[in-house]
Design brief:
381 residues; alpha+beta; 8-stranded mixed β-sheet; 7 helices; 19% helix
């Protein structure tokens, strides 16, 4: 392990000034696999059930989505970028996360994936049609890999504001008056999940879908135990892609944490946030800038208490970037912004959380009392 950095030492590593000051130590997880079944190209959509589609549509429009299609039992939401719908909401008895879908790079990848997993290729219930394969990850989350027959066309989007920087004066004889209106969602960026089966799930996404890890988190003082959180990106070779498309962390349950949607810039986040607050929605945490991924962020709850994020200006990595390693901590989640909230961290006590914790400690999984205490300590603001 390298010597600690001091004011009198000029310690440089492969990760300093990139995304993490620490790289892997000898024998640690490489964050990728040599021969995955396929390499998914991107996250296609996330899927939910909700009992009231009308109320779901009202929030969706206020948050900045456009409606791609609506049927009596299903609502498809989209961003302004061309592609597939980015959210699917189906009518159900309760409000819950169903699963997530990845976009296959080629139609033939579905056949390869079906053969390797013993599943079948079937028609996709998506505007424009397509094919998909249904899978189940080791955490129990439904995962679909889809190849859409047609892309939705691009929609008009919000233009980024023209900014003046020091002596670089690009805006003259004009004022800045960003309208207080919904942030126009451009696309789905990532989904974050909690799992009791972190290591098995991580390896499944690497081996089956060809994802690679951008950053690992470990418990401070227990690095030898291995990572407890990972940020995964898609592997498109020399093409730089989002720092993470999926993030997973070890915890007592198997739960949806949040999903994140890209908007144009900081002003779109801020003005859209003012609009949401005026509509009576609850901000969970923000506005700030993350460390892993560097996104400017703002987190909100929908009327059913599911957490969603506006983000802008995220990091883009090609396949050349190796995983970074950093200790997990509440204070390490942001470079700047308001203090992280207990609501965002999910550490507010509740009967459901207590029940999950007691069940997790009884079940056969990766958790033990010492690890649970370490996670709670790391996530204490």
């Amino acid at each position: 392990m390298s010597e600690p950095h001091t004011a009198h030492a000029d310690v440089r590593t492969a990760h300093q000034d990139l995304h993490s000051e620490q790289g892997a130590l000898r024998g640690e997880h490489p964050g990728r696999t040599r021969n995955p079944v396929i390499k998914v190209a991107d996250l296609a959509w996330v899927e939910f059930e909700k009992p009231d589609l009308d109320r779901a549509e009202v929030f969706a429009r206020d948050f900045g989505f456009s409606v791609a299609a609506r049927a009596p039992e299903t609502l498809w939401l989209r961003g302004t970028f061309a592609g597939s719908p980015c959210v699917v909401i189906r009518r159900g008895r309760t409000s819950r996360f169903i699963g997530h879908a990845f976009r296959a790079a080629e139609r033939a990848d579905l056949d390869r994936l079906a053969r390797a997993t013993g599943t079948a290729v079937r028609d996709a219930d998506v505007p424009g049609g397509g094919k998909l394969v249904d899978l189940l990850d080791p955490s129990g989350f439904p995962v679909r890999v889809v190849h859409c027959a047609e892309e939705l066309p691009e929609l008009p989007g919000q233009r980024p504001l023209l900014l003046n920087f020091g002596r670089d004066h690009r805006r003259r004889n004009a004022t800045q008056r960003p309208p207080r209106e919904p942030s126009r969602i451009q696309r789905l960026g990532h989904v974050v999940l909690e799992t009791q089966a972190f290591t098995r799930s991580m390896d499944w996404y690497l081996d089956t879908l060809g994802m690679i890890v951008s950053d690992f988190h470990f418990l401070d003082g227990r690095r030898e135990r291995g990572p407890v959180m990972a940020f995964f990106r898609c592997d498109q070779g020399s093409v730089a892609v989002d720092h993470h498309t999926l993030a997973m962390h070890l915890g007592p349950g198997a739960h949806y944490v949040h999903s994140a949607y890209q908007v144009t810039d900081l002003d779109a986040i801020a003005a859209g946030g003012e609009y949401l607050a005026e509509c009576g929605y609850q901000r969970t945490w923000g506005i700030g800038r993350h460390i892993q991924g560097s996104q400017i962020f703002d987190y909100w709850r929908d009327p059913d208490r599911l957490m969603v994020e506006h983000f802008a200006d995220g990091d883009l990595f090609s396949s050349d970037a190796e995983p970074g390693w950093a200790p997990l901590s509440a204070s390490g989640l942001a470079q700047w912004g308001p203090p992280v909230t207990r609501e965002f961290l999910g550490t507010n006590p509740s009967p459901t959380k207590v029940r999950d914790l007691m069940r997790a400690l009884r079940d056969d999984n990766e958790l033990d009392p010492a690890l649970v205490l370490g996670l709670l300590k790391a996530m204490t603001p």
